[in-house]
């Protein structure tokens, strides 16, 4: 069962920075995919980066943090 929003803990500076970095990684890879010469396995890299972000945010939420 999800915790109420008012019971959620704030992210630490490290956690917030890590989430921001993971999101930037996904955006950078998506931008590269739209470029003229993307890497051959760019779709797999995007998928892996997105899964890493999703998993990290899920773990934060499970531990009572806003994510």
Tell me the span between the first and last alpha carbons: 16 Å
Number of helices: 2
Q: Unreliable runs, pLDDT <50, ≥5 residues?
A: none
What are the secondary-structure elements, in order, as H or E? HH
Q: What percent of the residues sit in helical stretches (DSSP H or I)?
A: 55-70%
Rg of Cα set: 15 Å
Q: List the domain count as a whole number.
A: 1
Q: Strand portion, in percent?
A: under 5%
- Give the assembly state of these chains: single chain
Query: Number of DSSP strands?
Result: 0
Structural class: mainly alpha
What is the averaged pLDDT score?
Answer: 92
Main sheet specs: none
Shape: elongated
Briefly summarize what is shown.
The protein is mostly helical and 67 residues long.
Structure overview:
By secondary structure, this protein is mostly helical. The chain has one domain. Helix content is 64%, strand content 0%. It is built from 2 helices and no strands. Helix 1 runs antiparallel to helix 2. The relative contact order is 0.21. The model has no long low-confidence stretch (mean pLDDT 92).
């Amino acid at each position: 069962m999800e915790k109420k929003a008012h019971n959620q803990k704030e992210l630490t500076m490290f956690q917030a920075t890590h989430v921001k970095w993971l999101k930037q990684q996904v955006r950078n890879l998506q931008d590269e995919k739209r470029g003229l010469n993307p890497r051959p396995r760019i779709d797999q890299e995007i998928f892996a980066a997105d899964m890493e972000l999703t998993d990290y945010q899920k773990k934060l939420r499970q531990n009572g943090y806003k994510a």
